[in-house]
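pasting for ref
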Amino acid sequence: MCENNARQRYFSETEIRRIFEAASEDNSRVVGIYIRLLLLTGLRRDELRLAKWVHYNKQQGTLWLPETKNGSGRLVHLNNWAVKLIDELPRFGGNIWMFGGKIPGKPVCNVTKAFRRIIRRAGIYDEEVCIHTCRHSVAALIVSRGGTLYDVQAQLGHRSIQSSQRYAHLHPQRLKATGQLIEQHIGNALALSGQPD
């Protein structure tokens, strides 16, 4: 299954832009929002698919996940764009699920088929891509933009830092930049102390 795939394929920023465009044009508004939220949150497929309205707090911008893959609940802090998209979700009378499906009272199902449709429309035909690639992409974005592995752990809800460490290798330019930053700070410290170069 792709979720456990060590190859760690992730979407480039250009691919993410194309996926967002394709998802916003999808004939299913619910699924289009669902796919974009996967890329905005890093949630697992069913963590988001089975989210309930009762666990969403718009004022605080949070979503409570009562049970995750790790067997415990966690609070997800949503960014402004995610809150805006959730507000655009259609509400099906009395349905407890945020992502209501075609069957009354049930959540959306077969999100993998919809995901495939959307990425094809985005021009992505890579066989290594699966719905879990959205989660990998969030981790890659965090690391590439200066976030730490602890940020990855918190955002993705990993129980231990070991789960997040697999993303450390994703951006060698980030590691090089970190090395340069250390050199710069040490150079500044030496200059201030009057030490010779």
